[in-house]
Amino acid sequence: IILVYFVGFFLASFIGRASWRLVEGVLQRIPLIRAIYPNVKQVTDFLLSERKVEFSGVVAVEYPRKGVWSLGLSTGRPLRRLQETVPDDELVTVFVPSSPAPFTGWVVTAPRRDLIELNLSIDEAMRYLISGGVIKPDELSGTPSLPILG
């Protein structure tokens, strides 16, 4: 524990940061590591950063096929190249969480006109997803829901 503390203290200093940049430069020159390291670094930097992932809202998107609606969290604009290929439609990127582990899922990009914006909070949507659709937001508010299947 003491060793980890001192290594962290050293790397946080000016000399430590410069040393780490030098080590990263050497790693970037090794063929196999050069192919893997930048991607792993980008993911770990994102996961360990204090930035929060911001969702714009809760939407319903026809996924995985037409006629089947999935609950999703709108994350904002799509990849620029994708939007440039479909200039006639405003595209939106949507994260479709899987149940019961909503930290995994799929990222889909769909035209805004094909999405249904839902008046749900992120918390309500997550409870619905984690419960596998058992806990419905309208039941939380006291509004009775109609049975779907006989």
Brief digest:
About 40% of the residues lie in helices and about 20% in strands. The protein has helices at about 1-10, 15-25, 30-50, 80-85, 120-130, 135-140, and strands spanning about 55-60, 70-75, 90-95, 105-110, 115-120.
Plain-language structure description:
The chain has 150 residues and is an alpha+beta fold. The chain is 41% helix and 21% strand. The protein has 6 helices and 5 strands, in the order H-H-H-E-E-H-E-E-E-H-H. The protein has helices at residues 2-12, 14-27, 31-48, 80-85, 122-130, 137-140, and strands spanning 57-62, 69-76, 91-97, 105-111, 116-118. Strands 4-3-2-1-5 form a 5-stranded antiparallel beta sheet, covered by helices on one side. A hairpin with a 6-residue loop joins strand 1 and strand 2. Helix 1 (2-12) crosses helix 2 (14-27). The longest helix has 18 residues, at 31-48. It is elongated and about 55 Å long. Residues 142-150 have low confidence and may be disordered.
